Amino acid sequence: MQTYTVETFEEWRGIARQLLRSRVSPGDVCFHEQSSQGSLFDAAQEEQSVAAAEATTVISVPPKFLNLARVVACHRDPDRFQLLYRLLWRLTTLDSRLLEVHTDDDVYQVRRMEKAVRRDIHKMHAFVRFRKVISEEGEQFIAWHRPDHRIVRLAVPFFARRFPAMNWAILTPDESVVWNQTELVYGPGCSQRDAPAPDELEDLWRTYYGAIFNPARIKLKAMVREMPLRHWKTLPETEIIQELLDDAPRRVAEMIARQEGHARSAADHLPAELTWDALRDAAVICRGCDLYRDATQTVFGEGPTDARIVLVGEQPGDSEDIAGRPFVGPAGDVLNDALAQAGLNRAEIYVTNAVKHFKFERSETRRLHQKPSAREASACRPWIEAELKLIKPDILVCLGATAAQSLIAPGFSITRQRGEFLPSDWCGSTIATYHPSAILRSPTPAQRQATLSLLVDDLVRVRARLNEITHGTVS
Ligand code: SF4
């Protein structure tokens, strides 16, 4: 057994590359985070043995995996490097498309870690509050933050881009970083005692938070999850939360009075003239229901506007909300896999969702999908109706119950009625099947595989139906 101590992605990558070249399988290597058992440099014997292989073996590693590994390496799970090497081994020796198999347990674990790290980066971007310090060197802004994972080096380039003309420093227990308007300089970790005292910038934060606080959407548990208590000491706005909560009933009553008698929907935002450009521009600023408030952006459909097949999912997920594109996260990978297995080309298909904003609830580490309500699906319906009116597809595929209930019938059941072609208001061949997320949510690998097979079967039916329409044997 070869044993290595690894702290960073760069260290792991160097070792992993050597191990792969000398064909060391994951079962014969052990990665430790902190070593009482030797270090990378103690493993000189193994390095000598791999060096001979290095000169002759060329290993190709997908950039997608390296980007993923760079993120996952920041997770605090002590087994992350072992998991990464196992995945790397399988990717390079067994299945180069392994990362697209979201039903695989290793892929599932690594994606879960990736999400946790990305969420932590997002929180650092949201919760860092700088305090002004005047010293002999001039003005400097200093913040203290305690991330869940070792994300400092991934998170801080954001602050360098956002505040390029300020001298600032961020202190964390893992490491500190200083921006001198030219470069990021990293140093050892610090305690919160090293952070400066409050300053007048905090009044600005309190004013801003008071202005964006929505009294109709108070969920105390969710607030604590989103703004974990350990961050509260560094967040000046938390001082006014009680005051805002006390005033919430009065503000809610005012909001209800203002909106009485008016049922909002996307119809209020549709452009006068139905063209693609006008439609997309209008959807960006839709306020047809409250889902726009917490989501990052509207996620409109994408694909050829003369596509013969339209796929409609439920709503964007976490990755889609960030990317602004439908089906680009794990569910998108499952969909791509299913389409490929069914012999369909995604590039020829228009892909969209019944609801255009991501609905979620925050947990401590991630944003958890929430099913849109019937009211929200109905408010958003004008967008999908407009897309279908412009495209006029030969086949409409509803992925999951929300899309099927919105476009086929309100009581539609995926379990009982999937896989059948039915006429709908939008085209003569409308079919419903499982949403790819249902596969990701299946509790066991066997169940994931079984649901994936049903999705692929239904997509094979779609391909056959398209051929029939092409050859005029069905209209
Ligand atoms: S979910 Fe639909 S109706 Fe609601 S704001 Fe977003 S685009 Fe508008």
What does this structure look like?
- Helices cover 45% and strands 13% of the residues.
- It is of the alpha/beta class and 475 residues long.
- The protein has 4 domains: 116 residues, no CATH class; 67 residues, no CATH class; 59 residues, no CATH class; 204 residues, Uracil-DNA Glycosylase, subunit E.
- The protein has a 5-stranded mixed beta sheet with strand order 3-4-5-6-7, with helices on one face. Strands 9-8-12-13 form a 4-stranded parallel beta sheet, with helices on both faces. A two-stranded parallel sheet has the order 1-2.
- Helix 1 links the parallel strand 1 and strand 2.
- The site of iron/sulfur cluster has 15 residues, from helix 14.
In short:
This protein is an alpha/beta fold.
Percent in strands: 5-15%
Using the 3D structure, state the CATH architecture of the largest domain: 3-Layer(aba) Sandwich
Distance between the termini: 64 Å
Ligand catalogue? iron/sulfur cluster
Full CATH superfamily name of the largest domain: Uracil-DNA glycosylase-like domain
**Portion of residues within helices:** 40-55%
CATH class of the largest domain: Alpha Beta
Q: Strands, helices and their partners?
A:
Blueprint: E1 2-5, H1 9-21, E2 29-32, H2 44-54, H3 63-72, H4 80-93, H5 105-127, E3 131-135, E4 138-144, H6 152-162, E5 168-171, E6 175-179, E7 184-188, H7 201-212, H8 220-226, H9 229-232, H10 241-259, H11 276-284, E8 309-313, H12 318-323, H13 330-342, E9 349-353, E10 360-362, E11 367-369, H14 374-391, E12 395-399, H15 401-407, H16 414-417, E13 429-433, H17 436-441, H18 445-470
Parallel strand pairs: 1-2, 4-5, 8-9, 8-12, 12-13
Antiparallel strand pairs: 3-4, 5-6, 6-7, 10-11
Helix pairs in contact: 1-4, 3-5, 4-5, 5-6, 13-18
The chain binds iron/sulfur cluster.
The site of iron/sulfur cluster has 15 residues, from α14.
